[in-house]
Amino acid sequence: MTSLPIDPQLIADQNARLERHVRNDYEHLGEQLARRDVDIERIAAQVAAFGVAIPSWGVGTGGTRFARFPGAGEPRDVFDKLQDCAVIHQLGRATPTVSLHIPWDKCSDYSELRGQAQAYGLGFDAMNSNTFSDQAGQPHSYKFGSLTHTDAGTRAQAVAHNIECIEIGKALGSQALTVWVGDGSNFPGQQHFRRAFDRYLDSTRQIVAALPADWRMFLEHKICEPAFYSTVIQDWGSSYLAATALGPQVQCLVDLGHHAPNVNIELIVARLIAANKLAGFHFNDSKYGDDDLDAGSVSPYRLFLVFNELVAAAHEGVAGFNPAYMLDQSHNVTDPIESLIDSAEQVQRTYAQALLVDRAALDAAQQANDALAATKLLKRAFQTDVQPLLQQVRLRAGAAVDPIATYRASGYRARVGAARPARAGGGGGIV
Ligand code: PSV
Ligand code: MN
């Protein structure tokens, strides 16, 4: 039988030292919120039910085009990754699912993988295909594109790979496929824009035809990289056009880092909700581009404004609104487990804050064109310290009140450092 990776007694001991403070702080916050007519228990129940998926690739150390500095005890295969994800979920209780990337997470026995995940209390979120790099031994190269390649054989190979991802996902209990392609061009004139988009539709139509009825397909747009002049699915407009052409099972996924600086992402989110085309998110943060920094580390208010749209949509009961929440980050200077615990908590915190917006007062302020009152309502929610609520939710769920401190006290990293020999090579590569 699989045991959980962190000793539950350690969590209990660590929590025991903090329990009294959590109780007092929670009570105090409850009183504050009651004065605003907010029932803290209602917010706590919503936060407890909230989950964000861990990207399997996030538990390994990331890298840039220039270098990668591997950390100790990096996962060697998908089973090691799952174990690291189990640590994150055991300590934080905010990450009940894992999002796999194929071929990085291929293994020989998916029913064993599924069983292992179940033993850890984990499920599988969206599957991610990879046609942005070549797999060993594949007949056609993706150097000049995949689903949109000018060569039919290369496109067929990319379609077949996506269908293989669906098959693996079926064995694991996943219900969505995320497709991101790096296809595009590096020189003006290199690519016929309209024909490339037509080829994209033609290829993705074949993938949609292989989707089970209860699956969704998420199209992930990205402004640039690796193609730096043009990208076929460059923005939410292209993504929306494609998703609309491909039918109701296909929606648009918003990776926060995939936009030009200063783009109003919350407005994009609102548009996609209105069109019933919001698939979900890859959360991360950025300063300059697709920096893949930890969620909320640079612009927590921007993350809050996105969640404000999401909570508003749920509050208004928008039909079909069911976004998938995932992290997608690259951890270059931190222990990836710590970054993911902290980022999941940040996402959870932002959700809780957005739940505190006084919707009726905001409606009234908007209706009366009272711009200052409206914006102050958002700020009041955002500036509320909901930490005691997050701690109480974790305490009740058997997770750690202070997950990073408990993680450090557990010695997990040193333990896996000894059990998982370091891999050779410290070359560049975005993972
Ligand atoms: C592309 O930059 C991306 O955001 C896509 O989600 C990929 O699948 C992921 O990063 C992993 O590198
Ligand atoms: Mn992404």
From TrEMBL:
Entry keywords, A to Z: Isomerase, Manganese, Metal-binding
Q: Which GO terms describe its molecular function?
A: isomerase activity; metal ion binding
Q: For this UniProt entry, which segments traverse the membrane? A: none
Question: Has keyword Metal-binding?
Answer: yes
Question: Which Gene3D superfamilies does this one have?
Answer: Divalent-metal-dependent TIM barrel enzymes
Report the domain of life of the source organism.
Bacteria
InterPro entries per record: L-rhamnose_isomerase, L_rhamnose_iso, Xyl_isomerase-like_sf, Xyl_isomerase-like_TIM-brl
Q: Does this UniProt record's set of keywords contain Isomerase?
A: yes
User: What Pfam families does the annotation carry?
Assistant: AP_endonuc_2
Q: Where is the Xylose isomerase-like TIM barrel domain positioned along the sequence?
A: 108-292
Question: What is the protein name stated in its UniProt record?
Answer: L-rhamnose catabolism isomerase
Q: What is the lineage of its organism?
A: Bacteria, Pseudomonadati, Pseudomonadota, Betaproteobacteria, Burkholderiales
